[in-house]
Amino acid sequence: MSVTEVLKQSSDPESEGRTVLKLTTAYGLVDRSIKTSPPRDATPEEIPIINISRIFSDEPAARHAVAEEIKKAATTSGFFYMSGHGIPDEVIGAALEAAKDFFHQPQDIKQRVNQAASKWFNGWNGPKSHRANAVESLDHRESFGFRYDPRYDPAVEDVDTIPEEIKAGFRAEEYCWTQTSNLPHFKQDVLDYWRACLALARQLIRIFALALDLPENYFDEKTSHPDAAVALNYYPTIPESAGKDTGVEAVSIGSHTDLQFFTMLWQDQNGGLQVLNRDGQWLNAKPIEGTFVVNIGDYLMRITNDRFVSTVHRAKNFTNNERFSMPFFFGMYSKFDDQIGLANLNSGFNFNETCGVLPSCIDENHPAKYEPVSCAEWVHLRFKASNLEGGSGFVRHYGVWVSLKHSNDLPDNLENEQPLLFSTACLLASRFVPSISKTVGHEMYLMVRRLAACVVLKPPPLDYESLQSLLLLSMFSPTVQTAMPIDSWVMSALAINHATLPLNISGSQHAHPDFSEMRLKRLRIWNGLCLTHIQFSIGNGRQSMVQKAFVDYCSQILSFPEAICEDARLFAEVLLYSGTENLLNHSDVLCEGETIVFDDLVQWKTTWNHILAQSSSATLRNAALETSRGILSYFLELDFSVVLDMPDYYFFITIYAALTLCKFDISEPLITATQTCLMDLAPNDEHIAFRFGTVLEEIRRKAAAAGTLTTQMRPEDQMEPLMWNDNYAWDVMMAGLYPLDVAVTEWEDAPPDIGETFH
Ligand SMILES: O=C(O)CCC(=O)C(=O)O
Ligand SMILES: [Fe+2]
């Protein structure tokens, strides 16, 4: 049975006493029918206790016997208790005390090691900052996590001799320890626990090899530097009232499967861990003194061809005590590296390993169900489907706010279907949420960045919503409260793009069959992004650091045989706006008088005329409409006093957008709003704002006379563009740039009869 099948299996969700639980898996979101009956205690058959002390025996038979028991548990419930593990009580006790000392500190001290400041998701996650399951509550949990560091691994004699390709994947951060040094024993005690777990896991994986009918040392080399991580979990009591008003089930950590090879969980005596059996019944995995709970992760399930099962579990602490647990993940998967756009190992294997279905799990009747998967790809799969990563809690939290505010225009499933668009909406909405903290904003921003990186990495086709999100981001980020540094955002995204392009041509595994198409698509996105980026830098007085690189990069589109007119047009606009920005940043040129500037424009127009005059495709039209609407909305949001201080070029951009909108959708209310705004703010009728306002007024007047102006918005697919040629829009605009007396005559003469051209 595949992961999806296991998760989906069970009877009709409509049947009595059952409900549907949604689960995030690497294969997407799946529904799982579960029983509504209260959890019952697991029987010893369901979650057996396995005394593993025999794994340390010199007798192969003793080790094999343990392997058999593990095999049975792994292939049935996927969970077992491990006794006889040999980790001294003192080591566990000291780590637990360290955890208590840490979590009992005031928030501002814990903040010092907040995961938000971490590059690799080490450190502290505050209360209710995550949501492991989309349909359950935010996790009533705080945690502190850290990842494999060879310097603290006693099995490593000399860190300098570790091969570079393995080193490159290490995700440890010393700040976990420097920022907690106020607790004198913390580092020592927590690392002692980690070392003890690591040594045990390395023994245990040999028994897993036996259980999989492999040589005992099969995994040894692959796990010389595993991504082995400890999390300290702190679960305060869930208030009884929690979830009552919303109907959302309150949890300490929501229903999930673990990702990696296996997890060894130490839990205190309070209880709260629940395991979902195949029948959809929740079972209490009650604490048993002296044991760890061990469970299989998704990666192990995959490479065993689904023989070993990764089982859904969660925790709820409804006792009056605070609960602690200390899972050791062998190993916790790496989070997304948003600097280079690559994720790395998640499996518990070394950082550079790829693993297919194990030979012993394949036979005539059981062909391999899965391709070999590199750890990077595996993470990518799950990442796409999952929002477990940092920030998602906040995003969802504010997502509720977004959904409430805009319940009419957001599809129900936006969060899961379009996580980037959803997160972007949340990020943008967050500036309207009173007293939102910088940390929260930053977390949401990181989330968006990671998702954006995922989108850019995805093979084509890039869906419209993703493109929309990227455009939205590049448009509005200057106004987002968290002061998202747009240049660095775009720059790193650009870096991701550059970094991933070679990935797709080198190494057969990663080669995309249609590299050229993918590259073209990416260039298209970049042209779009670049355009909006430049448009919005204009008038903000912010020089784009990356502009030249942008333009050079964008120009590559023209060398594609598949490039079409729209690509060229977009590029032409990029040039126009970047030229504009250049001029603005060189005031000496501007000082010489406006003529030079306008000559420049005319030259640009001559160069690109053949492209601009072409008719537009639906895609281009929609893109043009969206961009234009964005520009006008942005313009309308600006303070009058700010607008008046802006150079004429800013008005040029605005009118260009307004005219584009006039061409495709003359009834768009933004046009009237812009017209009114322009005329209201102009200090006199010589001002460029007034001239442009008049231009818009006249176009609308003529459209009304021709009966084209409707008060109702027409559905976009029925919209016919106004049949003027682009020269007309251009001429009108250019005319508007000159003093009104000249302009009106020239412009009146421009189109033969605008009325005739309207439909
Ligand atoms: O604390 C527990 O009981 C479960 C923790 C868990 O499942 C996890 O951290 O992945
Ligand atoms: Fe877990």
Keywords, separated by commas or semicolons:
elongated, 28 helices, eight-stranded mixed sheet, alpha+beta, single chain, 11% strand, 759 residues, binds 2-oxoglutaric acid, five-stranded mixed sheet, binds fe (ii) ion
Describe the fold and architecture.
The chain is an alpha+beta fold. It is 46% helix and 11% strand.
Concise description?
The chain is α+β, with helices and mostly antiparallel strands and 759 residues long. It is built from 28 helices and 19 strands.
Rg over C-alpha atoms, rounded to the nearest angstrom? 30 Å
Task: Name the bound molecules.
Answer: 2-oxoglutaric acid, fe (ii) ion
Distance from N terminus to C terminus (CA atoms, Å) equals 60 Å
What overall geometry do the principal axes of the alpha carbons give? elongated
Task: Extract low-pLDDT stretches.
Answer: 1-15, 332-348, 383-410, 475-515, 539-546, 589-594, 711-726, 737-759
Q: Into which percentage range does the β-strand content fall?
A: 5-15%
Helix content: 40-55%
Number of helices in the DSSP assignment: 28
Q: What is the overall pLDDT average?
A: 70
Structural class: alpha+beta
Numbering strands along the chain, what is their spatial order in the largest sheet?
4-5-15-12-17-9-8-6
